[in-house]
Design a protein that fits this description.
Blueprint (H helix, E strand, L loop, with lengths): L4 H26 L2 H8 L3 H29 L1 H15 L9 H33 L4 H22 L5 H25 L61 H35 L4 H20 L1 H8 L1 H21 L3 H15 L2 H42 L2 H25 L4
Length: about 425
């Protein structure tokens, strides 16, 4: 079991590596979807059904992985899922029909969903032991890995077949898992420094934060639980050893956090699928300029997550959620309605900055409240939001217009801010 700073540092590096690997492998698969479509002779409709298998596998596995983490430990589950993810990414180019593609993508999606719950659960334990709000740094690693995977995929797409490219991802994944996995398997998840929520470092305690999203060491009565009201004066019903299930109130609070994740992921999915089209169709930009739109969003989100720990230590979690949701709402309103290309690009970047830390905060607090089960619930709701976003935008665009439909991203970002504000005000009154 980790007992000193060096052990915790090694665990943090290993977990960061797995987050980056996940983004790298997933993005590498995504950029080869057009080639796989051609190879399988799938129509747009049948390809859509096959791709839905990724989501189906992920959602089903997310609901089960929390139990596996409680029984076998989040470190072991992370390593096993990383192996499965690395192996399964090589399967799509071996298929030659849409049904076969759907079958292998079900496996790929299951591995992807499982590793997301497992390494987030492991990260929650590590954040508690470090007593620093470093969860955004792990998600920044995922974003950086995704950018690297997409960039590399674009570079090799003209020279390597999908089979060779994705087999290369398998080899990279297995090598990285072998190297980083040894650290996880040697150590049990670290116990938290105490039963309170890990907030800012003691040195930063002088920064008054009346909002409960920040847990800080306090000599007074129990510290209010960040972002959400305390579930109970006793320790959470679901310990990380899985010996007890969360009580009904804890489950409700976790659901609230899941709604914040859903609002955030809805925006991410909508931006990925509709941002470029908005620039090209509504502002008549070139395809190259349209592609820059999502890049602005992704780069800003990565930068926001890299600075997320400092932001959380300075503002606290409630203010971070409220400010992030508000900034994203303003940015997306500008991006959806502005008539100038430069303003839309700025709006995309501001939206990415605003959304950057909402999902990490929600996952970290759900894990502290209910262990791996909480992480699984929030991850499932968040992933559902990412699935819901693109089709919802499409239906609204048909009924209204694409700019009007994109304002729903701003609306849900505002909802996330309101949830953070409401729960932040509710906790001190207890």
């Amino acid at each position: 079991m980790p007992g000193n700073g060096n052990d915790l540092t090694r665990l943090r590096i290993a977990l960061t590596t797995f987050f980056a690997l996940d983004g790298f492998v997933f993005a590498g698969w995504v950029v080869r979807i057009p080639a796989i479509k051609h190879q399988t002779h799938a129509s747009a409709g049948t390809l859509g059904l096959a791709l839905l298998c990724v989501s189906a596998g992920a959602v089903v596995t997310m609901t089960l992985t929390g139990r596996l983490c409680r029984r076998y430990g989040s470190h072991l589950v992370t390593v096993v899922c990383a192996v499965l993810l690395s192996l399964s990414v090589a399967l799509p180019p071996l298929t030659h029909s849409a049904p076969a593609l759907g079958a292998v993508l079900l496996v790929f999606g299951a591995a992807y969903g499982g590793i997301n719950v497992a390494f987030n659960s492991a990260a929650v334990d590590l954040v508690a032991a470090l007593r620093r709000p470093v969860m955004p740094s792990f998600h920044a690693a995922y974003s950086l890995g995704g950018m690297a995977g997409a960039g590399l995929g674009g570079l090799v797409a003209g020279s390597l077949s999908p089979t060779r490219h994705l087999l290369g991802l398998t080899l990279v994944g297995l090598l990285v898992t072998a190297a980083a996995g040894r650290t996880l398997l040697r150590h049990e998840p670290p116990p938290p420094a105490d039963t309170e929520t890990p907030g800012p470092r003691p040195a930063a305690a002088h920064r008054a934060d009346p909002e409960p999203l920040v847990a800080r060491p306090a000599p007074a009565p129990p510290v209010t639980e960040p972002l959400v009201a305390r579930p109970a004066p006793a320790p959470p019903a679901a310990g990380r050893d899985g010996s007890r299930r969360p009580d009904s109130r804890t489950r409700r609070l976790v659901t609230v956090l899941g709604l914040i994740a859903l609002c955030t992921a809805y925006g991410e999915g909508a931006m990925a699928d509709w941002g470029a089209l908005h620039l090209e169709q509504d502002l008549d930009t070139s395809p190259g300029t349209a592609a820059v739109g999502y890049s602005c969003f992704a780069l800003a989100m990565t930068a926001g997550r890299l600075s997320g720990t400092a932001l959380l230590e300075r503002l606290g979690r409630t203010r971070t959620v409220v400010a992030g949701g508000t900034v994203a709402a303003v940015g997306m309103s500008v991006a959806a309605l502005a008539p100038a290309t430069w303003a839309v690009l700025v709006g995309f970047a501001v939206t990415g900055l605003g959304l950057a830390n909402l999902f990490p905060v929600a996952v970290e607090h759900a894990g502290r409240l209910a262990g791996p089960s909480g992480v699984a619930t929030v991850s499932t709701l968040g992933y559902s939001g990412m699935l819901l976003g693109p089709p919802a935008i499409g239906f609204m665009a048909e009924w209204l217009s694409l700019p009007a439909a994109l304002t729903s991203v701003a609306a849900l970002a505002g909802v996330a801010a309101l949830i953070g504000f409401a729960t932040g005000r509710a906790a001190p009154a207890e």
